[in-house]
Amino acid sequence: MIRFQTSPMHCIHTYFLHVFMNQRVLFSALMVCLLTATNHIALASDESFPAKVSRAERLQLERMVCGDKWGLAVAEIDARSLEANSRAHFADVKCRPHAQLQGQPLYHVAQCGRDGNEWSCSESELETILPLSNGPETRKLLVRPGTLDPARAITTLKKVSGYGYFQGRSIDQALQSTCNMGSGNRSDLIEISCRRWSMTVSFWCPQTKQDPTCPRIIYMAEH
Question: Model confidence over 204-213: pLDDT tens digits?
Answer without folding.
Answer: 887 656 666 7
